[in-house]
Amino acid sequence: MGIGRREFLKKSGKLILLTSAAALAWDALKAGTPEAAPNYKLHDHWWAFVIDIEKCIGCGNCVRACKTENDVPLEPYYFRTWVERYHVPGGDIEHPEVDSPNGGYDGFPPRYKPGDGSKNFFVPKLCNHCAHSPCTQVCPVGATFDSPDGVVLVDKTYCIGCRYCVQACPYGCRFIDPRTMTVDKCSLCYHRITKGLTTACCETCPTGARMLGDLKNPKDPIHEFLRTHKVQVLKPQMATGAKAYYSGLDGSVR
Amino acid sequence: MQKFLKDREHLVRMAGLFLAGLALFLIVRALFVPKGFGEYGHFRTGALADNAARPMAYAGRDACESCHPDVVEERKGSRHATVNCEACHGALAKHAEDPSRTKPVRPDGQKVCLVCHGQDVAKPTTFKQVNPKEHMGSGACNTCHKPHHPEIG
User: Fold this and answer.
1) Given an 8 Å threshold on Cβ–Cβ distance, is B91 in contact with A65?
2) Within a domain: residue B131?
3) Residue B124: closest CA among chain A residues belongs to which residue?
4) Span A204-241, pLDDT tens digits
5) Counting beta carbons within 10 angstroms of the beta carbon of residue A3, is it exposed (0 to 12), middle (13 to 18) or buried (19 or more)?
């Protein structure tokens, strides 16, 4: 070997320094522009949703607004959000009757008579924006993902339309868009919330039954609501980390 | 040891082949993996911007109120004061962008009310509901109730 110990240490030291510097530079190069919308700090938000069942009147404003805002196909089986009517006869929460004519798009024609000893209420449904979402876990190509601000989104240019996520969602919140054959779902009006507006469904809800909230913003009224109401998420046993909190949720709701 | 040195050439060739394969893999990977993939997780960072780029249909209450302070005044103290404008008037982002080009259509004086106030047992009992036939026959709601301030008297 024609190399002394001192020389060897010098050279290997230089090599280590240069490699780590190159790695850092490469990371910076790869990063591109991290913040999508100007003025919107991705890591300052953690979005959640609150639904107050006791306030929902089943008007269907949210369903119509969502379809308009997000260009959802009008056929009665494509929904990003929909409303269900529950009819629980005799307090039997194991066997509720549920109907959702056109997802509530045209409202609900009266169906049940008052005074028949049943319990009746409306339940709006939408993507629960789970913190540990099953749909994200099964996507084979990274087309559906949890954004750093707590929204489950779809990369339409990446989706191969394999439908794994449609089956994986325990809440039935996904569908294949027949025009693009890629998956579609509630994006929590990402194009609105990143600009400081609320979602289209919250904007048009006349009773305030739906509320968007930012859990990372200490001034958001969602904290007050979650403190003062008894809330529950759908299917808590599935440990999805759902962030759509229901107040006044009945045991019959699945 | 003697044999190892003799067969060294094979090992060098194999190593060369391996390196060439690795280089090819890295080149192909760089070509096919889009920019920003994996930065925040197993997805393309640009997808966030794509989702945020969709055009809006609903302008939002603030946009309405900035041009219509008279209606804000009219609705003050009414039970309808908390209802956002576009809940009844529909999506009006286009109107907010250019008020001269897109005019909002005046909502039907009966249909729009019954969307919310039609009777149904599933509605909360505290919410005002009417059976239109019993309550007013065939008349329009806005002959008695002003939609922006529906309380009478």
Assistant:
1) yes
2) yes
3) A54
4) 999 999 999 999 999 999 999 999 999 999 999 999 99
5) exposed
State the complex-level ipTM: 0.86
Would residue B153 count as lying in a domain?
no
Q: What is the pLDDT of residue A33?
A: 40
Among the partner-chain residues B42, B52, B88, the one whose CB lies closest to the CB of A191 is B52
- Both B13 and B48 in one domain: the answer is yes
The predicted model scores a pTM of 0.85
Per DSSP bridges, beta strands A47-52 and A244-247 are parallel
Q: Tell me: pLDDT of A2 over 90.
A: no
Range of the domain at B115: 107-148
CA distance A126 to A111: 24
**Does domain A42-131+186-247 sit in CATH 3.30.70.20?**
yes
Q: Is residue B135 part of a domain?
A: yes
Record: contact A204-B44, CB cut-off 8 A: no
Token pair recorded at residue A34: 């991290």
Q: Which chain A residue's Cα is nearest to B35? A: A30
The residues that bridge with A157 in the sheet, in sequence order, are: none
Å between B9 CA and nearest CA of chain A: 21
* Three-class SS of B24-53: HHHHHHHHHCCCCECCCCCCECHHHHHHHC
